[in-house]
Amino acid sequence: MTRASRWTLLVVVVVLLAAGGVWLWARSPAAPSPSVGPSPTPSPSPPAYALDVTLRRVKAVPVRGEVKARKLRAPAEEVRQTFTDLYAAAFVDPARWQGGEFPGIFEHFAPAAREEARQHLDDLTLGRAAAHVSAVRPEWARLDVRFLLGPARVPVAAQASMRFAATAFAGDGVEVPIRHRGEYVLERLEGRWLVTSYHVDGGFGPEALR
After folding, report:
1. What gap in Å lies between CA 188 and CA 92, rounded to an integer?
2. pLDDT tens, 112-143?
3. How do beta strands 174-189 and 192-204 pair?
4. Are 101 and 127 in contact (CB under 8 A)?
5. Structure confidence by residue, pLDDT tens digits, 2-49
């Protein structure tokens, strides 16, 4: 299940700003032809930001007995790396947005969950707003993980709570806050931790800060 996000707010803001700029330009007086001079310096590429996910709390629910914390370190780090790459592809790395298709996120979903993830792309990523964003600067990303252990006291499933905050850069210096939160269930499949179900919510703009 997923709840509709408010990504389209950014699209509306950016489109209105762009439309306003065109209107002002169209009504301004005609300017004299500029003299021939050197070619303008091309605008610099938007900065590339790296995402660092902080692993805060790690717990385990064993079928019986107890498990030592050190036995959870390796699987917890694997889950952290999964969400680092998932959110980098979904939000932070423009090179991986691929025109709003975000193909890099699907490798982190179990095969049975990938079609549903495609249907909820706007909720799991920047979605259509990516067309109006030049860069996203992460502010913080926090992850809590709770493992379900099997009879051999080995993690077989995980419940992960992800909280993500960033700033999107759109238009001529327009900065818009991003907030995204998700509850994910993962299973150890094909030698990796893959998302089998999720519930996500997020948005752009002042409402996202509430």
Report:
1. 26
2. 999 999 999 999 999 999 999 999 999 999 99
3. antiparallel
4. no
5. 444 444 333 333 332 333 322 222 223 333 444 444 444 444 555 679
Which pLDDT value is given to residue 19? 32
Enumerate domains of the chain plus CATH numbers: 50-209 (3.10.450.50)
Asked if residue 141 lies in contact with residue 163, where contact means CB atoms within 8 angstroms, the answer is yes
Nearest to 183 by CA among 158, 209, 210, 149: 158
- What's the number of CA atoms in the CB half-sphere (13 Å) around residue 171? 16
